[in-house]
Amino acid sequence: LRPPAGTRTMSAAEDAEWLRWVTKQFGSIAGEDKEIDLEEFKTALQVKESFFAERFFALFDSDGSGTISLEELLKSLSLLVHGNETDKLRFLFQVYDNHGAVRALRRIGVPALTRRGARSPRAGSGSIDPDELRVVLRWCLRESAIALPEERLGDLTLALFEAADKDHSGSITFEELREELESFPDVMENLTISAASWLKPPPPAERSCRPRCLTRAYWHNHRSTLAFLGGYAGLNLLLFSLAALRHAGLGGWVAVARGCGQCLNFNCALLAVLMLRRCLTWLRATPIAKVVPLDQHVVFHQLVGYVVLALAALHTGAHVANFSRLARQDGRHALAEYLLSARHGVGGLGGTASQTGLALQGLLAAMLAFSSPCVRRSGHFEVFYWTHLSYISVWTLLILHGPHFWKWFVVPGCLFVLEKVLGLAGRRAGGLRIVEVNLLPSKVTHLVIQRPQFFHYKPGDYVYLNVPAIATYEWHPFTISSAPEQQETLWLHIRALGQWTTKLYEYFQQPEPPSLEPKPLSRSLREKRCRRWAQVSAGPGETRRLCSTKCYIDGPYGTPTRRIFTSEHAVLIGAGIGITPFASILQSIMYRYRRRKQSCPSCHYSWCEDLRDEEMTLRKVDFIWVNRDQKHFEWFVSLLTKLEMEQAEQEPGGRFLEMHMYMTSALSKNDMKAIGLQMALDLLAAKEQKDSITGLRTRTQPGRPDWAKVFGKVAEEKKGKVQVFFCGSPVLAKVIRAHCEHFGFRFFKENF
User: Fold this and answer.
1) Residues 255 and 332 in one domain
2) Which of 198, 228, 245 is the last residue of a domain?
3) Residues 553 and 570 in one domain
4) Where is average pLDDT lowest: 104-113, 167-176, 395-404?
5) How far apart are CA 539 and CA 446, in angstroms?
6) For the domain that residue 615 is a member of, what is the CATH number?
7) From CA 259, how far away is CA 263, in angstroms rounded?
8) Given a cut of 90, is residue 752 above it in pLDDT?
């Protein structure tokens, strides 16, 4: 079977590989009869709705037998995978020219859109009428997981039909559809069935001549982290060597034990330093933040924890080996006596170094085991919490065990105690109140908390939240989504993902939460509580309640986003609920716009002065929000709408803030199951100056961002040094980090 005339000519090797791959895939999905039926075809195509699977199946089944043979499959795939634009467009036109589906919808009472007086073409007549177009667009919406009212579907159908029906005949011919699609050259070039990834062989893996960690871009973007790790490793090696050489005369095992002990002095003190959140937040405003990777302090804390456990095991093993040697030489005392009995001269307070060392080893192993993600995220957070509190016992035993540990610990220990006292003082000041709760259909809890007096924070900061009604001892970090300029309240947007966040959402779903008092409530108190929980007006699908639930917050603590205002060109990328730190930043920008907005008293023309000052050097901000589906855009659409209105007077080329929305569940314009819908959405957005999915002026793009094109466009703008700030899943962070290294952009990721 040869590719159709006019297609891209393949080499003999490519052609053979393609035929081999398709034959293999055919054999994996076909039955024993070597034929593919409709159900097998649906499974292989991986489509959400059956309409397109049935249409594609009918067009693939050229002989009308009800099954697809290997020959029929190869013939159709040659058109779709290697065909020219006309071949692919002809196939698309046949999918849309489906009068049978229109008749079926008419039987169940779905309204038609055929213009008055226009002739409805029969099936296969070579034209598409409005009813057929509406049927296809309806299934396109379902395939892309987009929910729009029936009236909006009619607007989309009318917009696309009026644009394509050039001669106003009441139907769209093949030539008219081709003419309309010529305005989308990139779509025509790549038009295919994107969901059927089994149709084409996988591309060969790209292999670099050297590992990524050895590239210049990698070292540029990780220079502070690598420098810190290098200094950390070098200092440990130096401490070990000095201590081991000092005790080399006492034997090899003693030298190893002393070297590890000196490293343990340093690392156990460093564990405390890495969790001094208030001190680290203060350091972010100093030049030290440009040298030391403060953003990775949690990761480094975990790394040092593993190093401490490894050093402790080696330290203990070396001492056990030495005691075993002494027991053999002595002959009067067994090894157990050396390990379990206090002996003068062994070390530690009263010669208890062996006993305190074994206790430390057990505590460290328990802390490491119960701090693993599988424990913290599986509904056993309090196990992690209480076992991690044993750090108090660990530090106490270290002071008793090592005669010199206190010298390393005195400064970080005092700072740690001071931070804890400040935190406890804030928590015992009567607590705060959650004054309003908005429950969004996307399982997001929007908490409005009264702002404490003298509570100052920067855009993008986060706090630890405790709600005793949910769990007494659990504290969880959440980014503040309100701007610092908002004086009276704090906002937190919390998505129900884990056990605690789900319990929080369900708690506020109740008409009246269960009483926390042990005694029955009086009638007056119950009426007062009901008034607290009086439901107020809310948006569609949203539950908004006034309440007075007690909570505690600990913070604020700084994040990498504090660097945004000192950047020149900032790219903010939020995935899903990862928009929360950027919501605070964007609101702060909006407040600054309002403060600097000027207007002419004569003509009432308004403009905004340059935002740059000593605290803000931004020239340009690109905000990119990637969401899985339509409902998740509800979180901050109102905020983004206000931001668009603030910049409405500015020219598009000179706008300070550019927004880019992506919906990953929506199929791209290159897919035959979505091209009509995306064209209609583009036409209607251009006509109404409003996106049909979010209501914003910014058009929501389907599919995942092409990061190479996005960052390429950012680099071409030349607005200054580019810094990329990301908050979202680690998988996406890895992809974006690689592109940043390619373009030479600095990359920062939120770490809690």
Assistant:
1) yes
2) 198
3) no
4) 104-113
5) 13
6) 3.40.50.80
7) 6
8) no
360 and 418 inside one domain? yes
**CA 162 – CA 66 distance, rounded (Å):** 36
pLDDT digits (tens, 9 = 90+) for 616-647: 677 888 999 998 888 778 778 877 887 777 76
Task: Name the token pair of 269.
Answer: 């003190």
How many CB atoms lie under 10 A from the CB of residue 431?
16
**Residue 550 pLDDT exceeds 70:** yes
How far, in Å, CA of 250 to CA of 260, rounded? 15
pLDDT (0 to 100) of residue 384: 80
Number of domains in the chain: 4
Q: Which residues contact 240 (CB under 8 A, 6 or more apart)?
A: 259, 260, 262, 263
* Residue among 417, 438, 500, 421 at smallest CA distance from 465: 500
In the prediction, which pLDDT does 111 show?
Answer: 45
Q: Return the DSSP state at 444.
A: E
Q: Which of 378, 401, 422 is the last residue of a domain?
A: 422
Tokens of 478: 């959440």
Domain hosting 484: range is 430-509+542-558
Identify the helix (H) or strand (E) that includes residue 119.
none
Most confidently modeled range among 103-112, 282-291, 324-333, 340-349: 282-291
Helix axes 675-688, 130-143, angle to 10 degrees: 100
CB atoms under 10 Å from CB of 361, counted, come to 16
345 shares a domain with 332? yes
Predicted model pTM: 0.73
Residues 361 and 385 in one domain: yes
Q: Give CA–CA dist 288/280, Å, rounded.
A: 10
